[in-house]
Write a structure and sequence with these properties.
The protein is mostly helical and 257 residues long. 75% of the residues lie in helices and 0% in strands. It is elongated and about 75 Å long.
């Protein structure tokens, strides 16, 4: 029995060695086959146009990656999104409307407000560039003018002067002398301040309702009853009776005129 067991072990070891040496024969796989290998290289070209097209594609992809930041920071989106978010907290419905609806409404209001600016860019910069009547540099300058004009109308002089002093730049003679590196942060700070001012004014009536309900419950001895449960229906009723969404959307749009 011991000899038979020893012979079976030797046969098993031989099979293991054979399988490890010739995996392709055992499993039907070609041992010389290899996985594909991807390489990226730079070759010389005699056509400068190919280089220009490659650079334009690279710049276009870079701009597309920065498009969300441009949409949020250089338009009216910041003010609208902050006001709508604070309004939802003031009413007391933390999840209603959902974030998707808040962001969607802010986006479409942004499109509505920025439509004249984008139409100006399309008419004076994009279409002439596509028709090859102006160069790329001229198109960029013409496209920046409507955006700069919009941001200057919403930027406070105090915020603009702050970043000019921080940058230790010379005092510009007119708005054309203000670089974008100074205008953009000034515009963002001004938008944040305006958004919180509007949000504070919206918060006051709902805060008064919360205080009145809490005082009534305290006077009645119902200290264990959360005031939010009682004040929420009253706040919803007030917001509905005054047609709150109509007033909010109209006020936000008119605040950029």
């Amino acid at each position: 029995m011991a000899e038979k067991l020893r012979s079976k072990i030797n046969i098993l070891l031989l099979l293991i060695v054979f399988i490890s040496i010739t995996p392709g024969i055992c499993w039907g796989v070609n041992p010389q086959a290899s996985a594909p290998f991807l390489t990226i290289g730079l070759d010389k070209t005699g056509d400068p146009g190919q280089v220009a097209v490659a650079v334009q594609i690279f710049l276009l992809l870079t701009i597309l990656s920065l498009a969300p930041a441009i949409l949020i920071m250089l338009t009216s989106f910041t003010r609208i999104a902050i006001v709508l978010s604070v309004l939802r907290q003031a009413i007391g419905t933390n999840q209603m409307p959902p974030n998707q609806i808040i962001i969607g409404l802010a986006l479409f209001l942004t499109f509505f407000i920025m439509t004249p600016v984008w139409q100006n860019i399309n008419q004076n910069a994009l279409q002439p560039y596509l028709s090859k009547t102006i160069t790329q540099e001229q198109a960029l300058k013409k496209a920046a003018q409507p955006i700069r004009s919009f941001m200057f109308k919403q930027t406070r002089k105090k915020d603009l002067a702050l970043f000019i002093n921080i940058a230790k730049a010379d005092k510009p003679v007119n708005i054309d002398g203000v670089p974008m590196t100074i205008l953009i942060p000034s515009f963002i700070v001004s938008e944040l301040k305006t958004a919180f001012q509007i949000a504070f004014l919206l918060y006051i009536p709902f805060l008064i309702i919360d205080m009145v309900v809490a005082s009534v419950l305290l006077s009645m001895g119902m200290m264990m009853l959360p005031p939010v449960m009682i004040s929420l229906p009253f706040k919803l009723m007030l917001f509905t009776l005054v047609d709150g969404w109509y007033l909010i959307a109209g006020s936000l749009v008119k605040s950029f005129k």
